[in-house]
Amino acid sequence: MSEHLKTALHLALSGIPPLPLRAGKLPFGNCRSCVRNACGGRPNMKAPGPCTCPAPCHGWAAATTDPTVLRSRDWAYAWRDAAAVAYHPGGAGLTVVDLDSAEAIMWARASLPATQIVRTTRGEHWLYEGVMQSANAVRPGVDIKSLMQYARWLGPGAGAMAALPDAVRALAVKEPSPARMASQTLTVPLGGGKGECRHRTPAYLERGIAMAEQRITDARSAVHSTVYRTFLAVLSAHGGCGCLTEAHMARLFTAAQAKGESPRHCTDAWTNARTRLGL
Fold first, then answer.
1. Over its length of 279 residues, how does the chain's per-residue pLDDT go in tens digits?
2. Which of 11, 162, 176, 202 could be 181's S-S partner, Cβ–Cβ 3.0 to 4.6 Å?
């Protein structure tokens, strides 16, 4: 058994989902069918590709705490050739603030609560308990790795881990330009509100929105397509009569963003669903 596999099994036992990295800190297509992206998966390997594997096997989506999967024959070649071990912070309920320069570290010490710190080749990883949307280059030399992202495992670090602070969450919130803001405004009623309302009680609509939120929240893979299909279902049932409000749409967008979708992806999915339905 390779040392990297031993490390991965130890992490899995602790509830931290690991995955193997090849040279250059890039993930494998973690089954034989996906070697060198032969399946047609996404080249950056940061999300599940369109392959026909029985389970997601690309990048962060391949991270698992199941020792049977980690020891499987399909993953044997990956652990044999692995250059390092990574993990999915969001899957472990964590957020990593990746600081890649001395200036970034100085900023963090002055701006963020003290927490568990892991030293890296170029800087430090600050680990917080809690998950959020991942984001790159939120400040010079600062990336956030949590949902739908992976981070290299470099040891447990030092210090007591703090709860994810609002100061870190705020880093991923970008103010849209006036032009983008106008294009992303959520408007109601949809379709001019000219359709016949089939809702006998407000509870019917409320139940539909709650079920849609749960469907997005429960997604374990193919998050992009799940969000789109859910938006499509909601608009198909409620989009033609003008009953949807901005509050309903905001709830769906919030659920999608909690799974790692960006505001732009949410807006695009909503717009595409409306276009498909002719709303």
1. 899 999 999 999 999 999 999 888 888 776 666 766 566 554 333 444 455 665 556 677 788 899 998 998 878 888 999 999 999 998 899 999 999 999 999 999 999 999 999 999 999 999 999 998 888 899 999 999 998 889 999 999 999 999 999 999 888 875 444 444 334 444 444 444 445 566 656 777 788 888 888 888 888 777 888 888 888 888 887 877 777 888 888 889 988 888 888 888 888 888 888 887 777
2. 176
CB contact burial 77-107 (16+ within 10 A = b; e otherwise) = ebbeebeebbbbbbbbebbbbbbbeeebbeb
pTM: 0.61
For residues 141, 142, 147, 149, the Cα torsion angle rounded to the nearest 10 degrees is 10
